[in-house]
Amino acid sequence: MPRLHLPAFLTRPRQLTRSSLLYAALVLLVLVFVPLIVTTSRWMHAVRIDLTSDHLYTLSPGTLHIVDGLRQPLKLTLYFSEHATRDLPQLRSYEQRVREMLQEMVARAHGRIRLQIIDPVPYSDDEANAEGSGLTAASGGSNGERVFFGLAGNRLAGDGDNEVVNQVPEKALSIAFFDPAREAFLEYDIAKLLYELDQTRKPPIGVISSLPVEGKPVLGQQPWAAVQQLSQLFDLRMLDPAQLKRVDPNLKMLWLIQPTHLSSDALYAIDQYLLGGGHLAVFVDPDAEQLQSSPYDVGAALPEHSSDLPRMFAAWGVVYDPRQVVLDRSRALQIELAGSSLNHPAMLGLGAQELNRNDVITASLQRVNLSTAGYFDLAPDAGTRLIPLLQSTGDAEAVSTQRTIQATADPASLLQDYRPDNIHYVLAARLQGPFQSAFPERAGEPGHLASSRSNAEVVLVADTDLLSDRLWVETQTILGQPMLSAFANNGDFIANMVDNLSGSSALLSIRGRATSQRPFTRVEALRNAANQKFLQKKQELERELADTRRRLEELQPAKGGSGDTVTVEQRREIEQFRQRQMAIHTELRNVQHQLNAEIDALGLRLKFINIVLVPALVILIGLLYGWRRARHSRRRRS
C-alpha cells in the first residue's frame, strides 16, 4: 500500500521553519486584508488632505452646509467636448479644476449627488441633450467643432436608493458654460445650482415700491422687463406699506424700490425683518424720472421724486444725501434731444472698470446704465462695512438735484463750470453688518431685536431708473412677435442681486476664491529684473543719441559753404556714436543671454531636485532602513 507523504511543516508542527511562518502570515494577511478593503470601500470614506497654498480643493463652510442639507437626490451631468478641445490646453486644464470641485461635492454628499461626465461628440444624442439642457456651445474647437463645457442638474423623484428605478426628472437647471474668467466664483456657481435644485417651489420675494413696476394692465401697460424676468424664477409678492405691521420671515428677500411716505410701523417691520436674518435690497433715488414730473420746491423737506430712509441709514452708519446727483462726463451717455445728439453727464454708462470684478453680482457684467443717480458713503463711527458694486470714475462731480431737474431741457448746461471732485462715488454697494435697530425706543415690545448677526447684508443702490426699460432693453418685432433685446446688463445686475440675496445665508457666505493658475514667481522676478536692465540701457542709448545730435548741430556751422560737405570732426563723432551704439547693443544681448542663463539654471536646478535629488534621498533612506534592519537581525541571531 503506498504511503502518503505530508509536507514537513505538517508532520513536524513544533519545528516550523521561518519560511513556513512567512507563508502562513501571507495567507492570513490576504484573508484579513481583502474583506477589510471591501468593507471600508463601502462604509468608510477616504481621508482627503488639501495641501494647496490657497486651499483650492477645500469646500467653504457655506458649501458644506448646502451639500449636507440636500433633501432630494440630484443628478449632475458635466458636458465637456474632449475631442474638440485637444488644441485648447487652458480649457482642458480648467475642466480638470471643475471636475475635481464636483468630485469634492459628490464625496461630501454621501450618495445624494450622482455625477456623470459626457463628451458630446458632434451630431450625437449627447450633443442634442446638452443643447436641450440649456448649455451654450462655443466656437473655436479643433477642426471648427463646437465646444460644450457646462453642467446640467436634475432633481430626481424618490430617494437615493430608488433613483435607478424612478428616473423621473422633476426639475432641471444648468450652468450654460464654465468661463475660465469666472473661476474665482466656480464654487459659488455650483453651490447655487445645488441650492436651487433642492428648492421645491419658487422662492418668495417681497416687493415694496412707489414706482409702477407692475405696469397698469387696465391701461395696457406691461410690467417692467426686469420684473417680468424675475417673476419667471421667483414668487414676487407686492406688499402694501400702509398695511404693513410685520414682514413674513419666510420671505427670502425684501426689495424696497423708491420707498416714500413709509409709516413708522412699516419701517419698524422692515427693521426687525433685517435684524431677524432677512435679506434686504434698497433702491433709493434723488431723482426718480419714472415718477410724473412735479415742480421742485426749494423749501420742501424733500422733492416728490426723491426717496430716502434717513432713520435706518443713520442706524446703519450710511451717509446718503437725496439732494445730490452724480455727474460723470467721461461716462456720459449719448442721447437724442431736439433732433441732435449730445452727451448727458447725468446719464451714465458704466463699463467693466467701474464694476466690482470681485463680487458675484457684478463679476460677469460688462455695462450698466444709470440716470441721475445718488451716492453712498460711511459715517466715521459706522460699525458696518461698505463694499462698492458700482462706482463713478474720478472725473465725477456731485451737484444738487435741483440743478439736474432744471437742466432737463438743456443737459449740456450741466457741463458749464464743471469741476471734477477726484472721487470715485459709490453708486451701488453691498453693506455688511452687524446692524443696530433704528428703533431702540421700542425695545420693550415683545420679540424686539436690538441687533443683527455679524453676517447680515444689505444691497444699496442709489438709482431706480436703471430698472426702467429705456436704459437697458428695447422691444423688437420678430416674425410678428415682440421680443426684448438688451443693450446693457441692467437686467443681469438685478437678477444676480436677487439671486444672491434670496439664497440661503450659507450661499451668501461663499466668496470668491483664488484661481488655480499659479505663475512662476521666481521666473517673473528674473524677467522683471532683466527688463529694468533693458530699460536702463535703452535710456542710456537715447541720452547718448540726443547728445550726439546736439554735438552735430554745434558742428554744423563749421562745415563751410557746401551743405553736402562733412567735416572730419563730424565723421569722428558719427563713428564714435556708431561704435558706442554697437557696444550698447552688445550689452543688451548680454543682458538677454544672462536672463536666459539664469532661467535655464533655475530650470536645471528644479529638474535636478525633482529627477535626481528626491529619488536619491528616497533610495538612501530605504537603504539605511534596510541596513539597520539587517544589522538588528544579525545582532538578534548572535
Automatic annotation (TrEMBL):
Coiled coil: 531-558
Record-annotated membrane-spanning stretches: 21-38, 608-627
Domain DUF7088: 54-152
Residue stretches making up the ABC-type uncharacterised transport system domain: 202-497
Presence of the UniProt keyword Transmembrane helix in the record: yes
Keyword Cell inner membrane recorded: no
Family matches, as InterPro entries: ABC_transp_unknown, DUF7088
Organism superkingdom: Bacteria
Keywords, ordered alphabetically: Coiled coil, Membrane, Transmembrane, Transmembrane helix
Protein name: GldG family protein
